[in-house]
């Protein structure tokens, strides 16, 4: 196999080839029937020299230049061969055992059968069964008088004369296997009773098996002496002579056993045997040399024939059973070469170099067929002719002399190995440049050798240099520049060598992009082609005429790969590849195409006289010319054209069309239809078609007559179309126009109107994409009718906006019947925009979406004055009601509040009581809270309660009840959020200004697990600096005792943001409040601590928003399983969408996998909330989550039904690979990578479709949907 890449170098040696051949043989044994040849051929690519051959040959005959063979197969068992081709004679008898020709040239055939088993054949009358002839005929012979004798199986010997017909000879022996006639005596050799003679009409037994032959298979006359092939009783002596004068038999010493036929030729006796070995079953005997076995002879020989020095042997092996021997070499007729590496043609002879160990050169002529050249070398990869001497490059062993010669001009040419002390080995390419032979070898370095055939004493010289090609596969000469293609691990595998240079040297064609593993080179009109063996797009081009030539890979959607050969035939580029089928490719018009039916695994291409030959693993085949096209018809004939059509021809690459019997094609087409134009009106024509391919052109089809029509000048009309007009009529014209006439376009004479539009001329297309024409404009009439459509320009109206004191809005132009675009809302200080109205009285709101504009109009803005709420924080004093104040108006100072023990000090705008509020001059522009300031009353001495020391105004407590507090440095403070939580700050707790906020946490799903039982809201308490307080702070929470179960007790917990757990702090319980002291702020909640109700008691799950919901039961079950929880306000929010992070948490809560999960590498992992990171990590480790192609996870993206299906399928171990179809109506919207998951979810009823049998892959999944499918998944796992 011609692959010289480094990776396949192991098969280049002789041992490698032997191993490879054995492996291939073992692989092919199961696929090869007995007697079958493995040749990949087709009707258009037959094997070269392949013909049908006779099998199971029992007799041979040569008469009048025609070779005949009688076979034993069951029907038509006579074959004829004239000019080298066997033809089965249809109608000939079955199971033929003997043939003869009489003096008139009539052919006789004796056959095995039940009667009338002699038939005759003449060229004029064909085959005729001779009525009255005997049955079971073994042998036929004719004497000098024209009498024909027939030896039969059990009916003795019969004689035929023209006068008496067929008659049985009385007393003749049965089982007469052989007959001969010597000097007036007829001899019969039998299979059971020896040899008999007949002279003067009487039969006599002359041998009976006692020291003479008994079981006789053949008789022959040798110069008047009878020779018999047979064996006596208990003896292996098989060839005997008979002395008629003394009636004695003598065995010939050393004769072979099991002789089936004898033939005497020019002093040599030939014996054909059936030894059972399968080969070497022909022996020779001479009186001076004795017996000798003919090496190379066929096995199972039953017939021998001599024809002017050529010996023919008929065998019974079941395949190609006629052999010839000329000049001592046996050749099986009809056999053709197998695995072929190279082809070469010279002087009408095609040579093939094969991939076998010996006699690997075969020669082919059309007359003689294939001949295996005896003595030729093995493993031949290159063949070339230099002045009549054929050179063969071989690859046998790395140290062999691997070039052989064969002088075709010699009287007796023979193959000679060029043995010298220094000669190339592993030769893969040979090239002749002006008498100098170049050899490319495959050894790894310095792989170019030269041999000057014109020198007096030529010798091989290895070209050595520091930079030389190695592993050379192919050589090419282009005008004195030699190109070498080699195979190395790197690119740049083409080298050049300019023989005309003063100091020529090898140069590697280096480029950033160049071919590697080059197996073939070809030059066509200045363009170099390189075939490579790399698995894809394996043809490259190099334009040597370009200013800056460079290699270009021929990359197309369908291009050959693993190219071993390149060739140009009739201007078309062909590539031979080494794949599995259709390995011939053709290239034309920028497109590669596989040649249908072409052979596979090719190593060589060759063109001879326009015929394309291809050789490879399956032998040598050729592309035959296609058959003649049939069914040529003409149709659609006009005054100047006709359309021809015909049947496609297998193997054709194109068709030639001929007109009126001419021999010059008028068209070259690839399809099976063609329109011939430019014909003369009212004229008769004839047309023919032929098919062609690379092998040649077929015969022309029969003629098809065509008569063109008489020419009639057609006329055409112009029609006007209102094109949607609502009133009026389109213009009309009753006349017509000839092609080339000038047409004047009408105006809108019928007063066409289209509501909302203005007439704007005419156009040849209703949509305005054709030619436009104005009134009175002209155009030239073409060859078809014309319709002119009215063109309409849509009317545009103005929508104006009256902002009624607000910011101005621009007018809008709006097309008729379209809708206006709602502008951005105008603004007006102190007012809220209330929308646009159609009327100035602001009674009718304007609907921008559904109101079409059919006239200009004005829209009016509506305004509502803004109001603000002023809230009064009495800071422990009597309550003061809030006030609603119009924007930019002033609040009314309320009646002063009262507080026991304090004096009211006025209202302040800040909780720190630093800025007094001025009711008379301060306009209200936002909602605000005013804070009461108090001063403790002084006392003259101790009171009855023990006395309270006076509190100075600088140290009074700052109080806030809205959850926010700003506390000056060192001051005491109190801040609460309703009755839910209160914070007491001691004076001096902070040496900085302190700002405190209290907020209820709305979404606690990420904070609370199924084990956490909150009995109060979760509060996030924050301050404006990270340091802890100088003094402990008192927190008091109100909790719901009804939420405590069994022996549970309330306890304050804070949330550890690092560990993501609740840490118990404790607290002092008084009624429904609990108090603790802390030195830092974070998230706090009162949770139930301790053992709850009896484990057997199930706590009912109640949410305020799931009653009657379709997923109510599933939600309660999922909460009880710890998959999900509700919100602190007692809701579940079933219709709220779920993010990808949230669903990962739900899924892991369902599966409860072990371990910490995989390390997260998502580029946006910083966006994954801490509460979700562990679940996401576990899902990644389990292969459930992979993220997006850009490396992100997108935790906050809402999860879709499609993503949910894929994640659950992976969790269940289901295949998510593409299925053929999901069965949903919107299957096209489901990507291939998810179809397997969707099918799995549907089959398991985990995720079903929606209405109208849709899956809705892009819909977002809700909390209710999520828990429902997770419970279904849980049911599938059996947990």
UniProtKB/TrEMBL annotation:
Gene3D superfamilies attached to this UniProt entry: Immunoglobulins, Listeria-Bacteroides repeat domain, YVTN repeat-like/Quinoprotein amine dehydrogenase
Pfam families from the UniProt entry: Flg_new, fn3, SLH
CDD domains per record: FN3
SUPFAM superfamilies xref list: Fibronectin type III (SSF49265), Galactose oxidase, central domain (SSF50965)
PANTHER family cross-referenced by the UniProt entry: OUTER MEMBRANE PROTEIN ALPHA-RELATED, S-LAYER PROTEIN _ PEPTIDOGLYCAN ENDO-BETA-N-ACETYLGLUCOSAMINIDASE
Residues in Fibronectin type-III domain copies: 628-711
Protein's name according to its UniProt entry: Uncharacterized protein
UniProt-listed InterPro entries: Cell_Envelope_Struct_Comp, FN3_dom, FN3_sf, Gal_Oxase/kelch_b-propeller, Ig-like_fold, InlB-like_B-rpt, Listeria/Bacterioides_rpt_sf, SLH_dom
Listed GO CC annotations: cell envelope
Signal peptide (residue range): none
Domain of life: Bacteria
Subcellular location: Cell envelope
Principal place of residence: other
SLH domain residues: 1098-1161, 1162-1222, 1224-1279
């Amino acid at each position: 196999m011609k692959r010289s890449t480094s990776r396949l170098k192991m098969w280049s040696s002789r041992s490698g080839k032997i191993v490879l051949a054995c492996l291939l043989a073992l692989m092919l044994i199961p696929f090869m029937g007995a007697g079958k040849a493995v040749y990949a051929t087709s009707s258009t690519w037959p094997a070269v020299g392949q013909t049908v051959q006779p099998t199971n040959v029992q007799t041979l005959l040569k008469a009048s230049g025609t070779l005949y063979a009688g076979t034993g197969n069951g029907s038509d068992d006579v074959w004829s061969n004239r000019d080298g081709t066997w033809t089965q004679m249809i109608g000939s008898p079955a199971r033929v055992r003997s043939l003869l020709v009489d003096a008139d040239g009539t052919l006789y055939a004796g056959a095995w059968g039940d009667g009338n088993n002699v038939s005759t054949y003449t060229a004029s009358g064909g085959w005729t069964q001779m009525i009255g002839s005997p049955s079971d005929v073994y042998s036929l012979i004719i004497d000098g008088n024209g009498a024909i004798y027939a030896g039969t199986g059990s009916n003795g010997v019969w004689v035929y004369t023209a006068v008496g017909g067929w008659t049985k000879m009385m007393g003749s022996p049965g089982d007469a296997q052989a007959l001969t006639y010597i000097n007036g005596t007829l001899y019969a050799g039998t299979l059971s009773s020896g040899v008999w003679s007949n002279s003067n009409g009487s039969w006599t037994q002359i041998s009976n098996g006692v020291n003479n032959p008994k079981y006789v298979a053949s008789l022959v006359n040798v110069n008047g002496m009878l020779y018999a092939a047979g064996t006596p009783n208990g003896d292996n002596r098989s060839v005997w002579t008979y002395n008629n004068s003394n009636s004695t038999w003598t065995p010939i010493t050393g004769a072979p056993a099991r002789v089936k036929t004898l033939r005497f030729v020019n002093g040599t006796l030939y014996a054909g045997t059936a030894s059972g070995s399968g080969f070497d079953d022909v022996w020779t005997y001479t009186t001076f040399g004795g017996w000798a076995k003919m090496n190379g002879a066929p096995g199972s020989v039953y017939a021998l024939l001599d024809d002017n020095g050529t010996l023919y042997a008929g065998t019974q092996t079941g395949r190609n059973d006629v052999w010839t021997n000329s000049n001592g070499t046996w050749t099986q007729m009809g056999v053709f070469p197998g695995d072929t590496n190279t082809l070469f043609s010279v002087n009408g002879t095609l040579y093939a170099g094969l991939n076998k160990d010996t006699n690997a050169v075969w020669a082919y002529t059309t007359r003689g067929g294939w001949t295996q050249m005896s003595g030729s070398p093995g493993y031949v990869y290159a063949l070339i002719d230099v002045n009549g001497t054929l050179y063969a490059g071989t690859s046998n062993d790395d140290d062999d002399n691997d070039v052989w010669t064969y002088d075709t001009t010699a009287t007796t040419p023979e193959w000679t190995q060029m043995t010298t002390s220094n000669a190339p080995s592993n030769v893969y390419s040979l090239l002749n440049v002006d008498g100098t032979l170049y050899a490319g070898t495959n050894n790894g370095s310095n792989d170019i050798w030269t041999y000057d055939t014109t020198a007096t004493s030529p010798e091989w010289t290895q070209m050595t240099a520091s930079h030389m090609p190695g592993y050379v596969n192919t050589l090419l000469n282009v005008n004195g520049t030699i190109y070498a293609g080699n195979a190395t691990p790197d690119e740049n595998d083409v080298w050049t060598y300019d023989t005309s240079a003063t100091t020529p040297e090898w140069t590697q064609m280096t480029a950033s992009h160049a071919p590697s593993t080059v197996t073939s080179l070809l030059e066509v009109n200045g363009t170099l082609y390189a075939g490579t063996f790399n698995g894809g797009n394996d043809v490259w081009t190099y334009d040597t005429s370009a200013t800056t030539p460079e290699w270009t890979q021929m990359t197309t959607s369908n291009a050959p790969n693993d190219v071993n050969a390149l060739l140009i035939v009739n201007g078309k580029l062909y590539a031979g590849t080494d794949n599995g089928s259709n390995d011939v490719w053709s290239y034309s018009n920028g497109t590669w195409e596989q040649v249908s039916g072409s052979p596979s695994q090719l190593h060589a291409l060759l063109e001879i006289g326009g015929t394309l030959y291809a050789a490879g693993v399956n032998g040598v085949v050729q592309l035959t010319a296609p058959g003649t096209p049939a069914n040529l018809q003409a149709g659609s004939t006009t005054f100047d054209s006709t359309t021809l059509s015909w049947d496609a021809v297998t193997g054709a690459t194109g068709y030639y069309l001929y007109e009126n019997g001419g021999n010059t094609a008028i068209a070259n087409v690839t399809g099976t239809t063609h329109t011939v134009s430019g014909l003369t009106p009212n004229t008769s024509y004839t047309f023919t078609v032929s098919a062609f391919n690379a092998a040649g052109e077929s015969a022309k089809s029969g003629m098809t007559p065509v008569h063109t029509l008489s020419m009639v000048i057609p006329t055409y009309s112009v029609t006007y179309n209102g094109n949607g007009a609502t009133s009026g009529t389109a213009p009309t014209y009753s006349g017509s126009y000839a092609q080339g006439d000038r047409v004047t376009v009408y105006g809108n004479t019928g007063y066409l109107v289209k509501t909302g539009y203005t007439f704007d001329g005419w156009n040849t297309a209703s949509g305005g994409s054709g030619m436009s024409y104005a009134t009175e404009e002209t155009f030239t009439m073409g060859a078809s009718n014309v319709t002119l459509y009215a063109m309409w320009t849509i009317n545009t109206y103005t929508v104006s906006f009256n902002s009624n004191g607000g910011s101005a809005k621009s007018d809008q132009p709006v097309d008729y019947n379209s809708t206006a675009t709602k502008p951005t809302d105008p603004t007006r200080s102190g007012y809220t925009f209330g929308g646009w109205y159609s009327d100035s009285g602001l009674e009718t709101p304007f609907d921008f979406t559904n109101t079409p504009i059919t006239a200009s109009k004005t829209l009016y803005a509506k305004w509502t004055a803004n109001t603000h709420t002023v809230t009064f924080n009495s800071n422990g004093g009597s309550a003061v009601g809030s006030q609603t104040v119009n924007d930019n108006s002033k609040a009314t100072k309320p009646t002063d509040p009262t507080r026991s023990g304090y004096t009211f000090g006025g209202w302040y705008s800040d909780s720190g009581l630093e800025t007094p509020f001025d009711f008379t001059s301060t306009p209200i522009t936002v909602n605000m809270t005013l804070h009461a300031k108090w001063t403790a009353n002084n006392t003259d001495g101790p009171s009855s309660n023990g006395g309270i020391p006076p509190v100075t105004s600088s140290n009074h407590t700052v109080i806030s009840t809205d959850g926010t507090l700003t506390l000056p440095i060192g001051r005491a403070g109190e801040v609460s959020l309703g009755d839910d939580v209160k914070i007491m700050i001691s004076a001096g707790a902070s040496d900085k200004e302190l700002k405190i906020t209290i907020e209820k946490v709305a979404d606690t799903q990420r904070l609370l697990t199924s084990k956490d039982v909150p009995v109060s809201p979760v509060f996030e308490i924050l301050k404006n600096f990270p340091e802890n307080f100088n003094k402990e702070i008192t927190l008091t929470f109100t909790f719901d005792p009804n939420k405590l179960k069994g022996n549970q007790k309330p306890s304050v917990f804070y949330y550890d943001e690092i560990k993501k757990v609740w840490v118990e702090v404790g607290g002092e319980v008084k009624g429904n409040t609990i108090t603790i002291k802390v030195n830092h702020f974070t998230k706090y909640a009162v949770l139930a601590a301790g053992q709850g109700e009896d484990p057997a008691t199930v706590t009912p799950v109640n949410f305020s928003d799931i009653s009657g919901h379709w997923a109510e039961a599933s939600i309660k079950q999922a909460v009880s399983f710890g998959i999900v929880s509700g919100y602190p306000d007692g809701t579940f929010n079933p219709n709220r969408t779920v993010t990808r992070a949230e669903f990962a948490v739900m899924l892991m809560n369902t599966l409860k996998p072990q371990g910490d999960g995989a390390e997260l590498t998502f580029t946006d992992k910083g966006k994954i909330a801490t509460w979700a990171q562990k679940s996401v990590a576990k899902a990644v480790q389990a292969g459930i989550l992979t993220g997006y192609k850009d490396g992100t996870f997108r935790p906050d993206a809402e999860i879709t039904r499609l993503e949910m299906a894929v994640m659950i399928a992976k969790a269940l171990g289901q295949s998510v690979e593409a299925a053929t179809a999901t069965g949903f109506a919107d299957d096209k919207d489901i990507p291939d990578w998810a179809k397997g998951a969707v099918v799995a979810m549907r089959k398991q009823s985990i995720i079903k479709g929606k209405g109208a049998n849709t899956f809705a892959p892009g819909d977002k999944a809700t909390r209710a949907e999520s828990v429902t499918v997770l419970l279904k998944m849980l049911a599938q796992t059996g947990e």
